[in-house]
Each structure stands twice: as structure tokens, then as C-alpha cells.
Amino acid sequence: MRILGISGSLRSGSLNTRLLRYAAEQAPPGVEITVWDGLRAIPPYDQDQDGELAPEPVTRLRDAIAQADGLLIATPEYNASIPGALKNAIDWASRPRAETPLQGKPAAVIGATTGSFGAVWAQAELRKVLSTTGARVVDLDLPVAKGEAAFDERGALRDEGLRARLREILAGLTAGIARTRELAVR
Q1: Rounded CA gap, 151 and 61, in Å?
Q2: Does residue 186 surpass a pLDDT of 80?
Q3: pLDDT tens-place string over residues 110-155
Q4: Distance (Å, rounded) from C-alpha 186 to C-alpha 182?
Q5: What are the start-end ranges of the E strands in the chain?
Q6: CA distance linking residue 72 with residue 24, whole number of Å
Q7: Contact yes or no for 61/36 (Cβ under 8 A)
Q8: Widest distance between CA atoms in the chain
Q9: Domain count for the chain
Q10: Using an 8 Å Cβ cutoff, are 2 and 67 in contact?
Q11: Neighbouring residues of 115: CB distance < 8 A, sequence distance ≥ 6
Q12: What CATH number should be reported for the domain holding residue 36?
């Protein structure tokens, strides 16, 4: 199984990118999580440039989503919501509606933040947005609060409860992928 990991943070020291890398290390056997790093290159959504005129970074994003069996998106929380760059990328990927690679795609959302709430609101918003695009979203979150202290020196989550929740989310995502494959065979 191939899972595309997308970090909603552009920051070089991103806690969410660190969280995705840790998730990739914890992936169940037979599951590969690849962290996509093209968010910075995605231009603001412009319907005049959509379709055959879509910019190359957008085409690469859509192709990466289409080739993945599922998505794992890690989002920070900006002003109680999703970062603009991440929302913009999802807007591009969701268009045109009839051809979106997000349609029926199993997805899960996790998040880390420097604050006390662990990006809970952003995760809820992102699950709503992804569901609206047609993705099949795992209805679980992973609130990693006070992110600087949440990881050890190797990049692993310190808290066993968070590690267990991440395993639960990965299991839910892989089960969703298996169901999608099963439905495709029928």
C-alpha cells in the first residue's frame, strides 16, 4: 500500500513534517508512507489556469494523489483553522470535481502545534473539507499539543497514548484502503 503524506506546514523545522516522518517509520508492514514536499510550489488557485492549463506543480500534486492508495495529512492550526497553503492545494486537487483524484480516496488527518490544543480545530476543518471533495476520511484525530516537547531527540513521539492513537489512525486508514480496493474489484 502506498500512502502519500502531506504536511500543511511550509516551515523547515515543521512539527507536522516531523510527525509524518514518524508515522512513516511506524507504518504497518507492507505500507509505505512517502512525504510529499511540493506544497510551497503550488500557486494560488485560479480557475482560468485549471484543466489542461494547470501549472506543473499542480499536475504533480494531482498525479501524486492519484498514484497513492491513501492520504495522510498533517496540519498545523492557524487562527483555529487550516493553513492557507494547504487549503489552496486541496482546492487545486479537488478540481474539476468530475476528475478529482480525491474522489473515493481514503484519507486520515493528524496534527501538531506549539499550542495547547494540538490542532484539533484544524483537523476537524480539514476532515470536513476532504469529505466535501469526495475523500473517504477516517473520523479520528491525533492532537499533538506543545509539539516541541512531544518528540524525543530521535523524532519519536514521547507519549504512549499518542503513539497508540497514531497506530489506530494508520490501522483505520489501511482498512479504508483495503475496503476501497475490495469495492473496486466488485
Answers
A1: 29
A2: no
A3: 999 999 988 999 999 999 999 999 999 999 999 999 999 999 999 9
A4: 7
A5: 2-7, 32-36, 70-74, 106-112, 136-137, 143-144
A6: 10
A7: yes
A8: 48
A9: 1
A10: yes
A11: 77, 145, 146
A12: 3.40.50.360
